[in-house]
Specification:
With about 325 residues, the chain is mostly beta strands. It is built from 2 helices and 21 strands. The protein has a single domain, classed as Tachylectin-2, Chain A (5 Propeller).
Length: about 325
């Protein structure tokens, strides 16, 4: 069994790896690829759609859609890249990667926040689509260096809200910003900072898109700790206020998911679990968390939403 390497001492049993992980890898791809990882996820027309980051053999990334009825098996992958960098857009000069997807409540369109690589460094690009075939580019909300971004699926007092992770003076905290029109942004505020000495002491960044629950916005995020052997990426949880998302209500003290299987430890970047997409099955109340494993393949882990919310609401309140 592929998950036998993960012991109860390494995991807290909130998330359970799919026994046939990884679910997608370069071997599945209909065209040459170096690695396939870090997918955005959404429910679209009865299918789970993953918008996967595909790195080519030049080292540049683009996005390609894969669809599955059950979100686990029988993936139908677009025969060619779904979304290539625009050769005329300087901000996309060296690729597109790490999409997060939300369906906007007021328009029904899907908003895609991804990282694009410009001559000035990585920055956030925003796009919208109705069918994952035609895409309207909405521009870049923030200057470099910035990444790990997602819109919230609804507005707050008529303002859009976006989580993102700028690098400022070398610091890498999770920020929140607001906009009346998706063009002009302000109200910038740190909502989830790094914690000195903890497992997430060097960098934090958004994982999956924000998930609305009765208790608040569930945030799955990644935290990085630099060790003598290299960087370790692990996963934590946070809860933001439902109507005022710059208010951090709860934050897990421990990580809830960490690399321990061979496909998470061996790859282009060892020791990485990097969630970027989630889907909640309303019938079973089960969350499927899609993540990049070792920057080389796509894997999935499941969790019971009630158990996740019981866990995060039992964590200490944030002062």
């Amino acid at each position: 069994m592929k998950n036998a390497e993960c012991t109860h001492k390494q995991q807290n049993n909130l998330f359970h790896r799919y026994q046939n992980n990884p679910i997608l890898s370069p071997a599945n791809w209909p065209y040459p690829a170096n690695t396939v990882f870090n997918p955005g996820a959404a429910l679209v027309d009865g299918y789970t759609l993953l918008l996967a980051r595909v790195e080519d053999r030049r080292g540049f990334s683009h996005l390609t859609a894969a669809r599955s009825k059950d979100g686990l098996t029988n993936w139908k992958i677009d025969s060619a890249p779904t979304l290539l960098p625009d050769p005329d857009a300087n901000e996309e000069r060296w690729g597109l990667e790490d999409a997060r997807i939300v369906r906007m409540a007021d328009t029904g369109q899907y908003a895609i926040s991804c990282t694009s690589f410009s001559a000035g460094g990585p920055l956030v690009s925003l796009m919208v689509t109705e069918d994952f075939k035609a895409f309207q580019r909405m521009g870049t909300p923030f200057p470099p260096e910035d990444k790990d971004a997602s819109l919230f699926p609804r507005r707050f007092k008529k303002r859009f809200a976006m989580i993102h992770r700028p690098i400022i003076r070398g610091e890498a905290h999770i920020w929140l910003s607001f906009s009346p029109d998706l063009k002009h942004w302000g109200g910038h505020d740190i909502i989830i900072p790094v914690r000195g000495g903890w497992w997430d002491c060097h960098r934090v960044g958004l994982g999956t898109q924000p998930i609305e629950t009765e208790h608040g916005w569930l945030i799955i995020y990644h935290g990085v700790r630099v060790t003598p052997a290299g960087q370790v990426y692990r996963v934590g949880l946070a809860l933001l206020d439902l109507e005022d998302p710059h208010l951090l209500l709860r934050r897990s003290e421990e990580w809830v998911f960490a690399p321990c299987t061979s496909y998470e430890q061996i790859g282009d970047v060892p020791g990485v679990v990097f969630p970027t997409g989630a889907v909640v099955d309303e019938r079973s109340n089960q969350l499927r968390m899609y993540y990049g494993a070792a920057d080389s393949s796509i894997a999935v882990a499941t969790a019971d939403m009630k158990a996740l919310l019981n866990y995060i609401t039992s964590c200490p309140a944030v002062d």
